[in-house]
User: Which sequence fits this backbone?
């Protein structure tokens, strides 16, 4: 019974949110309705996916993985502070975070738990890495040291995030491995992503389940990267960057994970110049000689 009540409350909140959207921006709401068939089609395409994996050489896929310092660190842990990670995360971490290795970098991780990952990040990035741990459990203060500061607070509390920003100053990396509830994840994203340094990386872990509300939020956010503001004064095809496009480089969706990267430098415009001399149709049409 309780589960049905929670579903009903969620449905009512969704209806209320849609009603507000209709009033505030009827055109945007109509565009959302126009895409319903594509949303359903994409979901069906994914659900019915049955392609058999093939290795590049056509034979059995090799089990040998490329070197990865994060996975190697994790595999060696047998005692000490606990660390609990999906194994496929390590390749994703290394792909997006390797650029910070050996540099002065400031990282925050939501969800300290047993403290094991705090040591992993320091080992990976090096001696110039400073770490901000965030947890709702006061006992996590025990993990503070010369390079780690623990902040006690609720990641769903916007006032906490204001105090955190005022205290820390700036961040290069935010990793959300906290409560995993969609509302917590959404508030953490909204309160930290705009504040990350240029070139910064935001990571949200453990985004589980089809039709996950936070995953839906992230997919909707991606749509903003496709905005097209035509620059009619350009001598070739050009578009002016929106504020989002100017500062957000890319959004990456992986199994159970969302990653957003910020641009290293502000983007002002996108250009599509032409090169070459031959363009279709450059051939004579059949029957014209």
Assistant:
């Amino acid at each position: 019974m309780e589960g049905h009540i929670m579903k009903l409350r969620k449905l009512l909140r969704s209806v209320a949110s849609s009603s507000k959207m209709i009033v505030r921006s009827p055109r945007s709401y109509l565009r959302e309705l126009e895409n319903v068939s594509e949303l359903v089609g994409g979901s069906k395409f994914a659900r019915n996916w049955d392609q058999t994996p093939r290795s590049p050489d056509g034979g059995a896929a090799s089990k040998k993985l490329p070197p990865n310092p994060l996975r190697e660190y994790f595999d060696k842990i047998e005692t000490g502070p606990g660390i609990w990670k999906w194994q496929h995360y390590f390749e994703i971490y290394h792909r997006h975070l390797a650029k910070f290795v050996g540099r002065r970098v400031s990282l925050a991780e939501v969800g300290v738990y047993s403290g094991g990952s705090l040591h992993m990040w320091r080992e990976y990035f090096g001696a110039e890495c400073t770490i901000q741990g965030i947890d709702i459990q006061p006992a996590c203060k025990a993990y503070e040291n010369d390079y780690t500061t623990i902040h006690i607070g609720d990641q769903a509390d916007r006032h906490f995030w204001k105090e955190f920003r005022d205290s820390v100053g700036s961040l290069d990396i935010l990793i959300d491995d906290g409560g995993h509830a969609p509302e917590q994840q959404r508030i953490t994203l909204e309160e930290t992503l705009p504040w990350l340094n240029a070139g910064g990386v935001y990571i949200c872990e453990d985004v589980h389940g089809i039709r996950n509300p936070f995953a839906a939020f992230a997919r909707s956010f991606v749509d903003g990267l496709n905005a097209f503001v035509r620059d009619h004064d350009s001598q070739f095809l050009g578009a002016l960057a929106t504020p989002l496009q100017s500062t957000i480089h890319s959004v990456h969706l992986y199994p159970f994970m969302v990653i957003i990267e910020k641009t290293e430098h502000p983007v002002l415009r996108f250009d599509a110049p032409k090169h070459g001399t031959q363009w279709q149709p450059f051939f004579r049409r059949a029957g014209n000689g």
User: Anything to note?
Assistant: Residues 1-36 form one domain. The beta strands are 105-110, 129-135, 148-152, 173-176, 201-205, 229-230, 237-240, 248-254, 257-262, 269-272.
